[in-house]
Design a protein that fits this description.
The protein is mainly alpha-helical and 720 residues long. The chain contains 29 helices and twelve strands. The chain has a domain of 265 residues: 3-Layer(aba) Sandwich (Rossmann fold), CATH 3.40.50.300.
């Protein structure tokens, strides 16, 4: 090729494309710089959060308000003033007693905890959620605060988780005199034990005393009391005058009575319960309610009983429905079903949800939760939030910025074995799992597949610990104990998904909700095709690989059953669970076309189709087509999957945002149309240029031809 030709060709190409190449290059450079800057900003933000967490949350922001031990008073010092090391030492000192005991459970080869083995375990030393719930209801106890106590007239064993209550109960009852008790005409004393025994027997029961209840005293005359004296306080209520009513004495030994632990129940439950013990026995445990001042000043048993009677009705209605709730939505633990319960509860009552900003589904997950990730928080458009329940990595100090002080905190755990089987199929495409075909293969050499620093790999190891905001790769056991302590202190209730129905009953009773509030259909569940049977060996490997989660689960499985025993007893729990299941079955028959869940491909209305992810096939539901309007709304809410329900609540709660978004969408559309038009113009111009260049080339070639002809002519030898 000739030099001039190359030159011309280059010129033609440059003319048409160089401009665009330069433009593209510049855009690329600007993009690179932008990404770099964004990365730095994001990294520093993350660092900041991590730092804050390490210094504030884990050791400094230790929740102390709800418990009042002397050591904890020391912890109330301003966190920033306590050096990190010192704080840690204090924590460890405070924990020593617990750590030693717990080690005996934790260091042993983990075995599933049965209800029976739980019974034997009386060493669990964490503060009790029931007490916390009660304490939460009553932020301050004054002398004029009233207490409601289910009472066994002559002998009562007080189950006080709150130290202050413990003292009150013990002091008061020790002063009760036999003669005075006898003198009261309304009290029928059936027990034949001497009053001295009553006095001897009236003692405070320790929170962690879960051992089998004695049926005879050291004197062998009076049984230990069958009823736990649960105390509920009525803040600022007036001392009540004495009223008369028939009080019957429980004198039957524990072994001979079916009287169970009592708790103050929701009105609905009370209505449902036929009060069996009352019907069957003439001697009944009663609910007493008197002001603390009265109680302390009172020196007679009759007075106590009269006051108890006076408040009997009040006690049954004193259960205040809780509407300020924080639910830590852990992954693969049946949390979507609970989310649906909370959504329905709030939706029906027009409560305000702390929803993720920008219509997302998660609250800044997998990063630590920040208050700014909640819609309406930064702009202060929302005055008070009621419920926070989307996926987040828990960070208490940030959550507290958003949620009211009296919020009820709860979460749910699942056995890490079944949980990992579930997450393996759901998160099949995270780096840790993507290169193996089975869970067994992964567990053969997990470290060769697991790199903690790669994004999303937290789904593969100790996911529960991660969600609760702790280090899921921690090897130091003390860290685990500290984490358990913090969870026990920050959360009022920890549920267990394997006992979902029991969990719902416990939740219902603690929050004073109704049965219909907690009835639900199983959501986000896989079909059998994508479930895998695990061998015993694999199960053991999972426990080992997720050892932090496993120990966490073991601990809270124990406290879960303890809570049931302390609050309502297992028999009553069974009754209520049966009612819940009956109600669910009834609703399934009414609402669902097939009477149960169907494969995603079978879901007819795509707006109710659950989000499909990874290698899992998530089942959905078809509504019965012949439903009346109200029933239809109710049924629709029951089957609406997480993403759709979150979006609809967002639209309901932030109509302005929806409007703004639609305007923005329109603007975007116009922009994209303009952009498309300008692109078309550019393409046209380029084509024209191209044509021009071709024409030019053509012209050049013509000139060339002409020129070569001319030169040829000039070079022709003169023949003539
Ligand atoms: N009511 C009830 N009882 C017991 N188990 C239940 C219940 N509801 C949901 N599930 C099971 O929970 C698994 C889904 O958990 P999540 O909803 O938390 O998952 S997610 O993190 O929100 O994606 C999922 O487990 P797998 O099916 O093993 O994957 C569901 O089947």
């Amino acid at each position: 090729m000739k030099r001039s030709q190359v030159k011309r060709w280059l010129k033609a190409v440059c003319c048409t494309h160089l401009r665009f190449m330069w433009m593209a290059l510049m855009v690329f450079v600007v993009l690179c710089v932008g990404i770099q800057m964004f990365g730095v900003a994001r990294h520093s933000r993350k660092e900041q959060i991590l730092k804050q967490f390490a210094t504030e949350k884990l050791f400094d922001k230790f929740e102390v308000e709800r418990t009042t031990t002397s050591t904890q008073h020391q912890l109330e010092e301003e966190p920033s003033k306590i050096p990190f090391q010192e704080y840690r030492t204090r924590m460890e000192r405070e924990q020593t007693f617990q750590t030693d005991r717990d080690r005996s459970h934790i260091s042993q080869k983990p075995t599933p905890v049965s209800k029976d083995s739980y019974e034997k375990d009386s060493n669990v030393s964490f503060s009790d959620g029931t007490a916390q719930a009660i304490a939460q209801k009553i932020p301050k106890i004054s002398m004029d605060t009233e207490i409601s106590v289910p009472i066994l007239s002559s002998m009562s064993q007080i189950n006080c988780q709150d130290p202050s209550k413990k003292i009150i109960g013990a002091t008061d009852l020790k002063n009760v005199k036999h003669q005075e008790a006898k003198s009261h005409s309304e009290v029928r004393i059936d027990s034949d034990g001497p009053v001295s025994a009553l006095k001897a027997q009236t003692k405070t029961r320790q929170t962690d005393d879960l051992g089998p209840k004695e049926s005879a005293t050291s004197q062998g005359q009076i049984s230990r009391l069958p009823v736990l004296l649960d105390i509920t306080l009525h803040k600022n209520a007036n001392p009540s005058p004495v009223t008369q009513s028939s009080i019957k004495q429980e004198g039957t030994p524990m072994a001979n009575t079916d009287t169970k632990n009592h708790q103050i129940e929701s009105p609905e439950t009370l209505k449902q319960q036929p009060k069996t013990s009352k019907d069957q026995h003439s001697s009944v445990p009663l609910v007493s309610s008197v002001s603390i001042r009265d109680l302390l000043e009172s020196s007679t048993l009759p007075e106590l009983h009269a006051a108890a009677l006076k408040k009997l009705d009040e006690a049954s209605t004193s259960c205040q429905q809780k509407t300020h709730i924080v639910f830590l939505k852990t992954h693969k633990t049946a949390s979507s079903t609970i989310l649906n319960i909370l959504y329905r509860f709030g939706d029906a009552r027009n409560l305000t949800f702390a929803l993720p900003r920008g219509k997302h589904n998660q609250l800044f997950y997998p990063f630590y939760f920040t208050a700014f990730s909640v819609e309406g928080f930064r702009s202060k458009t929302i005055k008070e939030y009621d419920i926070m329940c989307n996926h987040m990595r828990f960070h208490i100090s940030e959550v507290r910025k958003v949620m009211p002080e009296d919020s009820f905190y709860f979460s749910i755990l699942r056995n890490p074995v079944t949980m990992m089987e579930s997450s393996f199929s759901y998160y099949k495409y995270i780096p840790a799992f993507s290169k193996v075909s089975t869970l067994d293969q992964f567990l053969q050499d997990p470290w060769s597949h697991y790199n903690a620093s790669l994004p999303n790999n937290h789904y593969a190891k100790n996911l529960l610990m991660f969600d609760f905001g702790f280090n899921n790769n921690e090897k130091d056991e003390r860290h685990l104990n500290l984490s358990i302590t913090l969870i026990a202190k920050n959360f009022n209730l920890i549920l267990i998904s394997a006992y979902f129905d029991e969990s719902m009953i416990l939740l219902k009773n603690t929050l004073c909700w109704s049965l219909d509030d907690v009835v639900s259909f199983k959501l986000n569940s896989r079909n059998n095709k994508t479930k895998h049977q695990l061998s015993l060996e694999t199960m053991e490997k999972i426990k080992e690989w997720n050892s932090l989660d496993w120990k966490l689960y073991l601990h809270f499985n124990r406290t879960f059953w303890r809570k049931i025993d302390e609050s309502m007893g297992r028999e009553k729990m069974q009754d209520e669970v049966k009612k819940l299941r009956d109600r669910r079955n009834q609703l399934m028959k009414i609402c669902l076309q097939e009477g149960g869940a169907v494969d995603p491909s079978q879901v007819k209305d795509t707006s109710f189709k659950p989000f499909q992810y990874g290698a899992a096939e998530i089942q959905g539901y078809n509504l019965n087509p012949h439903l009346g309007d109200r029933t239809k709304t109710w049924c629709q809410r029951l089957i609406t999957p997480e993403l759709q329900y979150t979006a609809s609540l967002y639209d309901k709660q932030f109509p302005d945002m929806v409007l703004k978004a639609s305007v923005q969408n329109k603007t975007k559309q116009t922009h994209s149309q303009t952009w498309k038009a300008s692109k078309a113009k550019m393409r046209q111009r380029r084509n024209l240029n191209h044509q021009g260049a071709e024409n030019q080339n053509l012209r050049h070639s013509v000139y060339r031809k002409r020129g070569s002809k001319r030169t040829a002519q000039t070079n022709l030898p003169n023949m003539t």
